[in-house]
Each structure stands twice: as structure tokens, then as C-alpha cells.
Design brief:
alpha+beta; about 375 residues; 4 helices; single chain; six-stranded mixed β-sheet; elongated
Length: about 375
């Protein structure tokens, strides 16, 4: 009887081991059949939050070069688009008329000085003669008036000569500032009429430093003042600047100006940021996106931006649950962080496992073999 019980116990044990072995084999078979999918846990980090605004770049200094005299444009003395120095000769305009005017003004000045010299000596002589009653008082007064008129004529002649020299100098058009110069607007050989109204010849842009101009809502300005202490805080020293297409170098702006008033018609405040254009990649008139800081999220949930899908309901990710099944999970997203990560405001927890790639090969409810990646 004892042997029979022992036999039964051994048989029962073998049966249990056999059943357990079959269960293990069945689980392994399911695991082998399930496709391998890479998953990751969201990253939790403290980040600076930004709000994006469209802006426009402008050169820190620019000048319109104009012709101020009448005459034929004789020469252009620069290569379009090149860098020119302040005072460099850009154009020459026919100057014969203005050289003649200078000579006439010089002659008029010489005549005026000669007349003054004569009138002055005459007045001095009559003043001495008056002491011996050789002349009348009225003659002395007349002589003084003549001398003073001659002095005024000298000043007028000097002013006319100065204006004539100035007009002559306008025939040699020079760069008022250093910078990159545009192509000429009138062609060489054309007649320009700049005396009545200056004629634009070209433009010069000093791109050493650029200015990004943009507008924010008055509520955003209040937040800048109330929560972050205003534009002078370190938070606004290196504001990220983005472009429609990535440039070889990255750029940031230091906020340098805020309008003294809110625009009542738009409810916005104008801000300006200064940008160093060391590599001369930035040009006047470029459109930019300013990522203005507005706060700090100490526990932001970040996932790979490429893992997010979009459908008619909005943004979503695939999450793998504890049973290794794929779950369609709607989410609400925030801004991009460090170019490849996206802030998730709602829908995910730090310990969730989300599918990082091959989104088209998975579906809701599918059993997978998740492989955790960092």
C-alpha cells in the first residue's frame, strides 16, 4: 500500500511538471510569434517653456544712397552685393554745371571782398576827416552803411560758394555707412534730376548686427512682468530664433527694446531683439520665429517627436501595457524641445512604455514583444 501511495505521488508530480512545462512552452510560443517593437519611457526634465511669435529681421543700420544734383550718371564704381567701406566712391554724376557754379561763386566772393575792402578804407578815411570838419557827419554815416552792406555781400558770397562746393561734392556719391550694397537703380548713362527731389541710387545694409521685431499680446507682457520680472532678466538674454529652413548656424536674440505703449487697436506690444550676425547668413527682410520664454516646467514629460501620430481626433501615441498589448492613447502636446523631443501635457505618465518607431506596423490591441530602449 505504501508503494502504491508513493507511486501515485510520483505520478502526480510528473503530471504537474508536465503541465507546467506545457504552459511555459505555450508562453514562449506566444512570445516568439509576437513582433518585436521598440518602446521607451518618457523623459522627465525641467525645461523652459516658450511661446512662438512671427518676426521680421532688419539690419541694425541701413542707408539709402541718393543723387542730389541734376546730370548724367557717368559711372558706377562698385560690384553689386559686395561690401563697401564708409566714404567709398560709389557713383559719379556729370559735374560741368556745378564746377562752373563754383568758379562763378569764387569770382563773386572776390568781387565782394574787394568792394568791402574799398568801403572799409573809405569809411576809415572819412572818419578821420570828420575830426577836422573836412567832411560832414552824413557822409560818414553813408560810408559806414556802404561798408556794412559790402560786409553782408561778402557773407552772401561765401554762403553761395559753400553751397556751390556742396553741390559739386554731390557729383561724387560716396557711401554714408559701411555695409553690403545693392545693385544700382538707375543705369549708367541715365539722366537724373536730384535737385528738386533726391533720386534713389542704391541701398547699403550693415548686417553686422540684426534686429528681430515682433509683437506679443498684452497678457503675455503682463506675464513677463509679473512672473519673470521683466525683459531685463537673464531669461530673455538668449531667446531662440528659428527659420523656415534650418541654417548652418543657430542664433539667439537679446531682447533690447520694448514699445513704451500697447497698441490699442491690436492689443499688442512691440519687442525687438538684437542678434549677432557673425557669419553674415542673416539678411534684412528675413522672416523668423521667435521662441519667447514664458515660464519653467520643473517636471515636463518628454517623448520623441517622431513617435507621435496624427489622425482626425488629434495627436496620439501607441502605449504598451503590462500585458504587452498595444493601446491607442490620445495625447495633448506642447512645444518641441531640443529639436527632437516633444512636451506631452496630457495623456502619458512617466512610467508608460510608448512605441518609438514603426507606427504603421502596429495596431490597437495587438500583442507585441516590447524592447525597451533609452
Amino acid at each position: 500500500m505504501k508503494h502504491i501511495n508513493t507511486y501515485l505521488i510520483l505520478s502526480a508530480g510528473c503530471l504537474l511538471l508536465s503541465i507546467a512545462s506545457c504552459k511555459k512552452n505555450d508562453k514562449k510560443a506566444v512570445s516568439d510569434d509576437a513582433p518585436m517593437i521598440y518602446v521607451a519611457n518618457p523623459v522627465v526634465d525641467s525645461i523652459v517653456l516658450h511661446k512662438t511669435y512671427p518676426g521680421l529681421l532688419g539690419a541694425s543700420d541701413n542707408a539709402t544712397v541718393v543723387g542730389r544734383v541734376n546730370g548724367t550718371l557717368l559711372s558706377k564704381n562698385y560690384e553689386s552685393g559686395c561690401y563697401v567701406n564708409k566714404g567709398q566712391l560709389l557713383f559719379t554724376i556729370e559735374s560741368t554745371k556745378y564746377r562752373d557754379a563754383v568758379q562763378q561763386a569764387q569770382a563773386s566772393l572776390a568781387t565782394a571782398k574787394s568792394q568791402y575792402e574799398y568801403a572799409s578804407r573809405n569809411y576809415q578815411a572819412l572818419s578821420e576827416a570828420l575830426k577836422s570838419d573836412a567832411v560832414s557827419q552824413i557822409e560818414v554815416i553813408q560810408a559806414k552803411a556802404t561798408m556794412e552792406q559790402a560786409a553782408a555781400s561778402v557773407k552772401n558770397a561765401e554762403a553761395a560758394l559753400s553751397q556751390a562746393n556742396l553741390n559739386l561734392s554731390y557729383c561724387s556719391v560716396k557711401a554714408p555707412i559701411a555695409g553690403y550694397v545693392s545693385s544700382n537703380i538707375p543705369n549708367v548713362g541715365e539722366y537724373i534730376s536730384g535737385e528738386g527731389s533726391p533720386v534713389e541710387l542704391c541701398k547699403i545694409y550693415d548686417n553686422t548686427n540684426m534686429t528681430a521685431t515682433f509683437n506679443i499680446e498684452d497678457a503675455q507682457y503682463e506675464q513677463m512682468i509679473g512672473q519673470n520680472g521683466g525683459m531685463n532678466q537673464e531669461l530673455y538674454r538668449n531667446v531662440p530664433i528659428k527659420f523656415n529652413q534650418p541654417l548652418p548656424h543657430s542664433y539667439t536674440a537679446d531682447l533690447s527694446y520694448q514699445s513704451p505703449s500697447i497698441n490699442s487697436s491690436t492689443g499688442t506690444l512691440q519687442l525687438k531683439g538684437s542678434i549677432k550676425n557673425i557669419d553674415n547668413e542673416l539678411k534684412d527682410g528675413m522672416y523668423v520665429t521667435i521662441e519667447l520664454p514664458y515660464g519653467i516646467n520643473p517636471k515636463a514629460i518628454l517623448i520623441k517627436d517622431a513617435s507621435i501620430g496624427t489622425d482626425q481626433l488629434g495627436k496620439y501615441v501607441y502605449v504598451v501595457n503590462d500585458s504587452n498589448k498595444v493601446v491607442y492613447t490620445p495625447i495633448k502636446t506642447g512645444e518641441v524641445y531640443q529639436d527632437s523631443l516633444r512636451v506631452v501635457d496630457e495623456g502619458l505618465k512617466p512610467g508608460d512604455r510608448y512605441v518609438t518607431e514603426a507606427l504603421l506596423s502596429v495596431r490597437n490591441g495587438m500583442t507585441v514583444n516590447p524592447q525597451l530602449v533609452k
